[in-house]
Fold these 2 entries.
Entry 1:
Amino acid sequence: MSMSRRKASESSPEYPLLGFLYFQPLHGYDLHKRLESTLGEVWTLPQNQVYNILKRLECQGYITPISGESESHTPNKQVFTLTPAGKHHFETWLMTPTPGSSKALRMEFICRLFFATQISEDLYSRLIQEQYHEIHRSVEYLKKKMEACPAEQVFNRMGLDLRIRQLIATLEWLETFHQICEEQLT
């Protein structure tokens, strides 16, 4: 998707929560524990915020409470499951490349890859390739902005140069990460 057509990054912790629910119904406490243990260095989220997000997702029709026990076997607690709308919302996010921003790549893209590896190797490989192209497009876009930026706008040029260098480093990281994951996943 072109940078000009894409709205701002959707770096929201709702997506990892929806992702965990994509595979099985869970209670808020279990969602928080799963988030901490698998993506805790990517997303830092207090437990009370998990419950607030779950309320919002329920109001939006993306999740619904069901009866049953949670993974921790806590009785009388709400266990949530994805609705068809929630599944569609998560899958749409999963298939959308992350824009070329270091923060968005660290949070969104790593999270997407985490869930993609659990769905299919083909999906995982496709996301890596699409992301590589998206970052490359972002670098080219920023280089054009740099060329058009007047020399006397030193701080604008410094900002653009830093963003370009970060994205080039991200492309190198992505190639290395892809090789490591390929070795571990096969």
Entry 2:
Amino acid sequence: METERLLKEVEKRLPKKRFEHVLRVTETAKRLAERFSVPVEKAELAALLHDIAKYMEPKDMQKLIEENDEDERMLSFHHGIWHAAAGRIIAMDEFGVNDPDVLNAIRYHTTGRTGMSELEKVIYVADLIESGRNFPGIEELRNAAERSIDIAMKACIAHSVGYLVERQADVFPDSFECYNEHVQKI
């Protein structure tokens, strides 16, 4: 699907502010992809579709997850992470995406996981550091992304897990495993 048509489809499904976020994530992902020798076209596609399911009804996301061999453990966690798995399915079924790396980048952009590809890391990091984000520590995360994708990934997953722990929110097991892998790696 050509980029202009894809943009129109994404824009139809998201509120204005979320669509603007998607555009900023896409620009950030393309920049990171260039810097870290990741195919820019794949980064653009994954970034454009990463939040495609963000505003679906939870019951509809649940149905997609249950019917498509997704990790049903996530259904016992807050529905805020469900859109990543639902988005992967929509990317395949409705947009014809069949590249496993692009699909995994969409699927794991909220939780991370062990063994992430460079593209998966680019999308995870871009989602967190895009220019519209403004929270304590954002500049440190952006600076880490200037150094290496692994340093950025470690900083970003540590920030995300720390944020959830500080709020006494549940943390999906993939996120803990991703955090541990990056702490041990660097």
